[in-house]
Amino acid sequence: MERKVSTLSLKIGMYISSLDRPWLDTPFPMQGFTIEHNTDIDNLKKYCHYLFIDTERGVEADIYLDESAEVNKHYLDEFLTSGKRQVEYQQQASVFNEFPAAETALESATNTVASIMDNIRDGDNLDVEAVRKAVQPMLDSMIRNSDALLWMLKVQQNDSYRYTRATDNCALAIAFGRHLGLYKEDLRVLAMGMLLLDVGNIKISPEILNKAGTLTKAEFAVIQKHVAYGVEILRETPGLNDTIISMVLTHHERFDGSGYPHGLKGAQIPIFGRIAAIIDVYNAMTTKTPYRGAIAPHTVLQELYKWRNKYFQDELVEQFLQCLGVYPTGSLVEMTSGEVGIVIAQNSKERLKPTIMMLLGEQKKPAEVSTILNLATNPTDSSGLELKILHALRPGAYGIDPSRGLLD
């Protein structure tokens, strides 16, 4: 059977049956051939963007560029239709009891990622076992409590944006995968993939990555190469799950076919790639970068909702919103009383009523004691009226900075 594949997906043992251009324009044998060496792959990449393999005469690819949905079928697709999870995770610890472990897990993972990336930059191979060890404490913490680690994302401070982006992606992936009912091993694969999503950035000039202004067309073309660089690094790593490689390859593809590098659409994109795209965009928009401020999580979720069935799969966007809640953990909110607080835990049954740590009083002055309010208990203000969230606030409003002890 002939199938269309990206040159980024090539493996030794594949049988090349057709190219994306006439055979006579290339040095390859016109009757087709089997890839026997890495040099064959390098040569194919020089001449082609995609080609066709015969899966009956050689090994198969991890991801195809044709429209066969069966290749990428996953039990999550069935959940998105039926609503029945394979695993129902339960909260095993309170957010406050879990917070110290979440803090340790996130700090350790951030330091490990920095070390891993520095080693790759120095010419070493990717250390898969180190990646697993970085992910495991975060995974364990998130399974015990789904809020502590997400809260910790807003509290932890680290000078290296590119490394905290990786660990934030990882934490969000575990939260979302937990919500979707992924088996624990699939949770681990998803988390590792998100941790390595932008590993190819280590080959991109920092001047371009951190540019404050709008990228030129040429600079954006350079940025896009991080996908190919990342796939190349992972392909050279023994023992790495192929799903992780496909996540890196497809996390900039879009549901309507407007993404890159191959303009895949719909079910052509593996479901973990579809998940990675949503998380990556959400994290990018809610994180302060060297070139722009962070956008309020509530606002970003509204944007994602507008983009469903355009850039992202409708059902996955709906589940992502359910996972994070109307006001995601770590969001700053102003109450109907005028008080200001930070969301520290979700209420799965009543999404408009999370648990909030109150930080500022009605006159926007720091509270003497940080009161914890569970809005699901219908607390009242000083006038006896039910206390509700009035609206979300932008990150850093009223000088509140979680990374510096909440009040800057």
List keywords for this structure.
408 residues; alpha+beta; Hypothetical protein af1432; 5-stranded antiparallel sheet; 4-stranded antiparallel sheet; 13 helices; 42% helix; 11% strand
What does this structure look like?
- This protein is of the alpha+beta class and 408 residues long.
- The chain has 3 domains: 2-61; 95-324, Hypothetical protein af1432 (Orthogonal Bundle); 332-407, no CATH class.
- The chain contains 13 helices and 11 strands.
- It has helices at 38-47, 75-82, 95-121, 128-144, 148-155, 161-180, 184-195, 206-209, 217-235, 242-250, 271-286, 297-306, 314-324, and strands at 2-6, 15-19, 33-34, 50-54, 332-335, 340-345, 355-360, 372-374, 389-392, 400-401, 406-407.
- The strands form 3 sheets. A 5-stranded antiparallel β-sheet has the order 8-7-6-5-9, sandwiched between helices. A 4-stranded antiparallel β-sheet has the order 1-4-2-3, with no helix packed on it.
- Helix 3 (95-121) packs antiparallel against helix 4.
**Portion of residues in helices?**
40-55%
Order of helices and strands: EEEHEHHHHHHHHHHHHEEEEEEE
Strand order of the largest sheet: 8-7-6-5-9
Give the C-level CATH assignment of the largest domain.
Answer: Mainly Alpha
Total number of helices: 13
Overall structural class, as computed from helix and strand content, comes to: alpha+beta
Q: What's the count of strands?
A: 11
Overall body shape: elongated
Q: What are the low-pLDDT stretches, counting only 5+ consecutive residues below 50?
A: none
Major sheet: 5 strands, antiparallel
Mean pLDDT across the residues is 89
Distance between the termini: 62 Å
Determine the CATH superfamily of the largest domain: Hypothetical protein af1432
**Tally of domains:** 3
Q: Look up the CATH topology of the largest domain.
A: Hypothetical protein af1432
Provide the β-strand percentage band. Answer: 5-15%
Radius of gyration: 23 Å
**CATH architectural category of the largest domain:** Orthogonal Bundle
